[in-house]
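Appendix B, example 12.
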Amino acid sequence: MKKIKFLIFLLALSSCNQYLGTVDPDYTPTNEVTEILSDLDKNKLRSEVKFGDIIFPKAVNPSMYINTVKIEKIININKNSIVNFLNEKIIVSKDKAIYLIDKINQNKFEYELNLNKNEKTISIFKFNEKIHILTNRSRIFIINSQNILELADYDIFINTAPIVLGKNLILFNVFGEIYDVNLDDYSISKKDNFILKPGISIKSNIFEDKTNSYYLFNAGTLLTFDKNNFDYNTNYILEDLNILTSLDEFSELVDTPFSYNEYLYFLDRSGKIAVFNPISSDIFWELDINETILSYLFSNDGYLILMTLNKILIMSDKGNIINSYLHNKETPISIFNIQENIYLISDQGISKLNLKDKKDDIFIKNKFTNNLEIFYQDEIIYLKDDKSLFKLSE
C-alpha cells in the first residue's frame, strides 16, 4: 500500500508543476490506530486537566463566567435561518423576513424581503455601517432606515457562505468559480477557478497560519488563499496529507484545519486526526480514534477536546489521550466551554461535565435539534438550532 501511495505521489509530481510540498526520503508514516479505552492505559489518565483558554473553533472570552445556566428563547426560526450580531442588535433571517432584535430590551423590528421561489438568505454582514443581506441567488440587499433596498443581482447560484474581507466579498458558485465583489461600487469580477471535490456542505470557519487563510467549500474541498491579498492559491495540501498518511483517506473534514505551532490540525468525521506541516510535508502525529467526531474544542495550551457518540476525550499536543469521560447521552450534538468547564449539548438539554468525578454536575432540560451553532458575544452565549435562537444566562 505504501509503495502504491508513493508511486501516485511521483505521478502527481511529474504531471503538476504547481504541486506544493516535499517528501523526506527517510519519512515512514506511523499508523497509530488506537482502540480507545479498551487498550488505553488508565494509569496515564489525569484526574484534572487545566487545558487553558479555548481558541478554536471560536475563541472564548476567558473572563466569561456563568454559574447557573438558564435557557431563554429569543425567537422562533427555521433550519435555513441566518443569524449575525452587529452592534447591539441581533439580525435574524426567516423565510422572506429579516428581524432586528435589540439585545438589551428585546424590541423586534421586521422587514420583508422580495425573494424569488427557492431563494433564501445565505449571509448577513455589515459594510459602511449598513446591514447587507446576501441570497443564494447572489442578490445583495441593504436595510436603509425603514426599508430594504436591492443593490445588486449577479445571477450566480451559491450554496455556501461568502468571505467578507474589508471592502471585498468573495463568492463561490456551485461550479467551482470564485468571484470578487467590490462593495464600494458593487462591481463583480471573476477571480479564479477551483477543483470541486465531493463532500457535504458544512458551515466551516476561516482559519489562518503565517502565510495562508483556509476555507472549506465542502467537507472534502479545502481552499487556500494568500493571507495578505486573498488571492487563491492552487495547491494540494489535503492531497499531500492523503498521500503521506498511514491512515485511510481524509475526505469528510469536521471543520477547516486550524494552525498551531506551524502545524495544521486535520479532523475527519470518521475519527482520523493528523497534525501536518504543509511546507515540510511532515506529519507530527496522527491517530484514528475509531469513533465519529461530532464536535471539538482546542485550547491555547495545545489541548484537543473531542466529543464522540459516547465519549469526551482530552488529548495533549503530542497526541496522547490524557482524560476521558463516558457521557452516555443518546443524541449528543455539540460541546462548548466556559472557563475550565465543559458543557455538552444533547437533544434533551445541556450538561455541565465533571471530568474529575466522571459525572454531570448540572443538567438543564431543553429540546434541541441538530445543526446547532454556538455564538459567543462578550459574556453571553447564544445557541441556534433548526427551530429557535436561545440565549444562555444566569
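The longest helix spans residues 2-15. The chain has one domain: 2-393.
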